[in-house]
Amino acid sequence: MTINQISVFVENKPGKLAEITKILADANIDLHAMSIADTQDFGILRIIVNDTDAALSALRENGCTVNTTKVIAVEMPDRPGGLAKVLRVLAEKNVNVEYLYAFISRKKENAYVILRVEDNTIAIDVLQTAGISIVSPEQIYG
Amino acid sequence: MESGGKALNEQYYKGGEIETASPEDMRKLQNERLVKTVRHAYDNIAVYREKMKATGVEPGDVQSVEDLHKLPFLSKDDLREAYPYGYLAKPMEEVVRIQSTSGTTGKRVVAFYTQNDIDLWDECCARAIVAAGGSNRDVVHVCYGYGLFTGGPGLNGGSHKVGSLTLPMSSGNTERQIQFMIDLEATILCCTPSYAAFLAECIQQAGVRDKIKLKAGIFGAEAWSEEMRRNIEENLGIKAYDIYGLTETSGPGVSFECREQNGLHVNEDHFIPEIIDPDTGKVLPLGEKGELVFSCITKEAFPLLRYRTRDISILTREKCSCGRSLIKMSRPMGRSDDMLIIRGVNVFPSQIETVLLKEGYPANYQIILDRVNYTDTFEVQVEMTPEMFSDEIRILAEKEKDLLAALRAMLGISPKVTLMNPRSIARSEGKAVRIIDNRKI
User: Fold this and answer.
1) Digit-coded pLDDT (tens) for B22-53
2) Which candidate from A39, A69, A116 shows the least CB-CB separation from B397?
3) What are the counts of helices (DSSP H) followed by strands (DSSP E) for chain A?
4) What CATH homologous superfamily does A3-69 map to?
5) pTM
6) Residues B284 and B387 both lie in one domain
7) Which of A120, B5, B319, B438 is 20 to 30 Å apart from B76, CA to CA?
8) Are B267 and B254 spatial neighbours (Cβ–Cβ below 8 Å)?
9) How far is A28 from chain B, CA to nearest CA, in Å?
């Protein structure tokens, strides 16, 4: 029930992010979700795409530093308090969230949140027990 | 400052007999001192004795400066290998001081002094101060660092010898520097040229230029240009003089500029200079460019002979309008090795390589130097390995921090570390360009 996320190292120079998105565009990769984290010196671009393998090889061929991480996508109603509930459930069970980012799903009434936690199995169990729905890879990539 | 009005004699330290001696008299003195020092070094430094034997030369083979070329060269590596006491030529009871070169953890070079060595060093610096127009009526403001660095102690001692009132400010705290300079009416400033330029700017900004009584500055320990000299002179309203030296031979005062400001008179009654071809070691004639080599002929505790400075210069012996007959060396115009001087600290690219390999990084890196607000900026660009990369910022930031700490421990100064993509640093014809020096000095 986990999703493949690609992380890309972004040197802190003008145009670096544009270079990466061009590589993905040229390889005909569809971006489903993305976020960027940065320090003064560098950034990390995190993306979820329709074809992880194709994206990875395109990025590697073009000299990018990449890795993949298994993350969890949860689905919640797109209204106030949706994310708060997810985070409260995790906090109560002491599940630490390294980072998260949200995107809107194609289904208008729902939002997706990508969660990066240390142990996916525990987190999925905690979320499902609380009745929060985990998004399957098919739902995302399809 | 114009010393033209004074009697010529007043421009030399205590009479100036040595500084104006005929080349023949100087040569005679050098011959005597050289013969004595070769014997002293051979008798008292075991590693040097072995080195002479390995070269097949005996003390008796050196009867005059003409024979100097028979002696082996000494390098920084020789001194490092013999660290710390290997080249000490006097018993502990007679040694009173240690100074040390900047930077390089575990690879320092230490130099030793007897009281007599210090006295002679002070005298060399005193000559530089007098050549810059200094006398016992001056207030000499020394903001070179004090401590292991030779800059502060050298000029401090020189100023005492001249009889000037000495302000031992050491480095740092610019505001206090300027306050003392104004309050005590300092007339001669001693520091690195980059700090002088920085001080000048701060003085302008504070709007206190008209309260400054400086007439001259003695600046060294760093490469600088004529353009920088003119800037400092205009901004501070002074004459700016160069001074040269290295810890291994004592410190500042090996050579100094006079009012002509077109080269540095070598105190050749203490240091015999040679210019050699850095590749072949062959001695080059006067007027040719090559690596400076010094033989200390009056040192007791640390009598280095034919020490390779790695500084590129030219020696000339011409009549100087100041009256000094001392041989002149041009300002060093580069290095014959890859040593960088960054913020006054000696940095070898190989040290950076050592740290990178130890920390698990590929040895493909680039050093980028620039100068902003008269201060060197120092960036090390480093390639990551694909395995190092993580989706978490925290992990990468920590790696960057660890590398920075390791570099700082090795170099003694902090670079800015920039992580780069693997294999992204340009390699030209198989050999990478390691150093990009954009400093305009």
Assistant:
1) 999 999 999 999 999 999 999 999 999 999 99
2) A39
3) 5, 7
4) VC0802-like (3.30.2130.10)
5) 0.71
6) no
7) B438
8) yes
9) 23
